[in-house]
Amino acid sequence: MTAQEVVGDVFIALGVALIALAAIGLLRLPDVYNRANAVAKAAGLGMVLVLFGVVVLAPGVTPVITLLVAIALQLFTVPIASFKIGEAAYLTGAPIVPGTAGRELAGDPPETEPEE
Questions:
Q1: Interhelix angle for 44-57 vs 3-28, to 10°?
Q2: For the stretch 59-92, what's the b/e string if a residue is b when 16 or more beta carbons lie within 10 angstroms of its beta carbon?
Q3: N or C: lower Cβ tally within 10 Å for the chain?
Q4: Could you tell me the maximum CA-CA distance found in the chain, to the nearest angstrom?
Q5: CA atoms lying within 13 Å on the CB side of residue 97
Q6: Residue 95 gets which letter from DSSP?
Q7: How far is CA 24 from the centre of its chain?
């Protein structure tokens, strides 16, 4: 096993672990807003790590360009999609966990701690 294969496998394993962590967060977190955040962050980065691992394992001009475009698209689209999912949930009245600070869409000021 070469060093290149080890590095590629490590990136893929880290990516799969982050995607699994996102799946656990999807099942365990209390509301749609927290779930969307967990999936966007962990699964988005996990997919990038998996794709980067494939780039390391498939050294060639065409696969590298294709996978780098896929990574760039992943990094650009996941945050926007997550934001729109959260906004749609809010606009349709999805319940918010008590203690959530600030509701900017409703015009409520963020909750602040009293000064001592």
A1: 160
A2: eeeeeeeebeeebeebeeebeeebeebbeebbee
A3: C
A4: 61
A5: 10
A6: -
A7: 13
Tokens of 12: 């893929």
Written as one string, the DSSP assignment of 14-53 is HHHHHHHHHHHHHHHSSSHHHHHHHIIIIIHHHHHHHHHH
Could you tell me the pTM of the whole model? 0.76
Give me the phi and psi of 35, to 5 degrees please.
Answer: -65, -45
DSSP assignment string, 96-116: --TT---BGGGTBPPP-PPP-
The residues pairing with 103 across neighbouring beta strands, listed in sequence order, are 108
Own/partner long-range contacts of 4-8 (Cβ < 8 Å, ≥24 apart): 4/56, 4/57, 4/59, 5/57, 7/53, 7/56, 8/53, 8/54, 8/56, 8/57
